[in-house]
Amino acid sequence: MASISVSFSSSFISSPIPQDKCKILHTPNPNPILRLIRCGIAAPASKASSSSSSIAKKRHWKEGEFPGISETSLPESRRRTPIKNVKKKLDRKLKAKAWVNTVTETLSDRIDKKQWLQALEVFDMLREQPFYEPKEGTYMKLIVLLGRSGQPQRAHQLFNTMVEEGCEPTSELYTALLAAYCRSNLIDEAFCILNEMKNLPLCQPDVYTYSTLIKACVDASKFELVELLYEEMDERSITPNTVTQNIVLSGYGKVGKFDQMEKVLSNMLESTTCKPDVWTMNTIISIFGNKGQIDTMERWYEKFRNFGIEPETRTFNILIGAYGKKRMYDKMSSVMEYMRKLQFPWTTSTYNNVIEAFAAVGDATNMEYTFNQMRAEGMKADNKTFCCLINGYANAGLFHKVISSVRLAKKFEVPENTTFYNAIISACAKAEDLIEMERVFNRMKDNQCQPDDTTYSVMVEAYRKEGMNDKIYYLEQEKQTTTMISDDEKSEEAN
């Protein structure tokens, strides 16, 4: 492999890195890794003056009483409520308020951690209190959370509860509910929400509503519905914005409809309201970069620069990823050096793209060096980082390091999703360790992680190599059963 020149000096350095500091990744780095040590110096706590004396207050009479008059000396009709009872009531109110504040903080924490079931349980506790009135913002956060968690039916139930309790729905809340169905690819149900909005004068759909639905149609490759939605927007005098156009651009590009893609882009260039932006640039170069059409990607990059659109960190990461997949390490290195020169920080995505490039060819040495430098610079490794490491070690035949990577991922509390398990299953298949492969597969299901087509295809191929046709048969039966259950669940949610 050709030598790879990539500078791994600290991203905390603000000045551009001189060219003579670039190191060859194929040789051990003679210089120690730069480390940034942050020392927190706490200011000494101020001490209260020992000479300060408390001034005793002169007590004239009990609070709530008049001089010379006792509560018991008054007629029963004129007697006041004893102050201790008032204090008890105030204490109870303060305690209740403190409890509500604590539970509200817990609810916010559950939402932030995307724990939808626990969030609903906490919310139900709050709603049972007579002094708690949930606000529109709380319902919005919960509906969005349920939508992102694949629970559109629960989101709809919560929406109905909100309306029953007297909280007026808004266009934003309806759009959040529509988005919940869109995320689960329940497009028909999403259209029902759209029609319901159109019948409510105060909840009319806006450009964000249509953009959300258009994205769902694009992801499902239902471009005929996209055209209908565009026509409806025009009839309602709703102008598509740049986000809407970028969504459609991406959809056309992914399915190879480049003529339609260029048509949309031409309309954007002629428009005065939705001009192309850096996301447009990123969308186009990502499409051609993922397809390995490097020359076309570079031409479009230059075109957008000529339009006056400046690149951002994500733009450079897309270029690095495209060059890495084609093993064009010189250009990959040049982009990284250019980022340093312009003082663009290297991000987790930057390192992931480099690690992925080395992992694809089983270059464990450079992959490890990149990962270690990533950690030295304080970058947090994510799910993709460890998937790339596992694939790289498997491609290099270093299966003992696959195990250590899995343990390290657990130590870092990296989420174990389907992609993560697929990487481990694929590594086991390459090692021809079918027993461990089956253990990982069972653990995947025990952790409520749904196997996908990649999971089954990798396992079927591993069994086929060993001539284990009975295993293939049972696995295919399980796949069909899982698909049927999934379809039934979707039908239940639709109803």
From TrEMBL:
<feature type="repeat" description="PPR">
    <location>
        <begin position="347"/>
        <end position="381"/>
    </location>
</feature>
<feature type="repeat" description="PPR">
    <location>
        <begin position="206"/>
        <end position="240"/>
    </location>
</feature>
<feature type="repeat" description="PPR">
    <location>
        <begin position="277"/>
        <end position="311"/>
    </location>
</feature>
<dbReference type="Pfam" id="PF01535">
    <property type="entry name" value="PPR"/>
</dbReference>
<dbReference type="Pfam" id="PF13041">
    <property type="entry name" value="PPR_2"/>
</dbReference>
<feature type="repeat" description="PPR">
    <location>
        <begin position="135"/>
        <end position="169"/>
    </location>
</feature>
<dbReference type="InterPro" id="IPR011990">
    <property type="entry name" value="TPR-like_helical_dom_sf"/>
</dbReference>
<dbReference type="InterPro" id="IPR044179">
    <property type="entry name" value="PPR5-like"/>
</dbReference>
<feature type="repeat" description="PPR">
    <location>
        <begin position="312"/>
        <end position="346"/>
    </location>
</feature>
<comment type="similarity">
    <text>Belongs to the PPR family. P subfamily.</text>
</comment>
<keyword id="KW-0677">Repeat</keyword>
<dbReference type="InterPro" id="IPR002885">
    <property type="entry name" value="PPR_rpt"/>
</dbReference>
<protein>
    <submittedName>
        <fullName>Pentatricopeptide repeat-containing protein</fullName>
    </submittedName>
</protein>
<feature type="repeat" description="PPR">
    <location>
        <begin position="241"/>
        <end position="276"/>
    </location>
</feature>
<feature type="repeat" description="PPR">
    <location>
        <begin position="170"/>
        <end position="204"/>
    </location>
</feature>
<dbReference type="GO" id="GO:0003729">
    <property type="term" value="F:mRNA binding"/>
</dbReference>
<feature type="repeat" description="PPR">
    <location>
        <begin position="417"/>
        <end position="451"/>
    </location>
</feature>
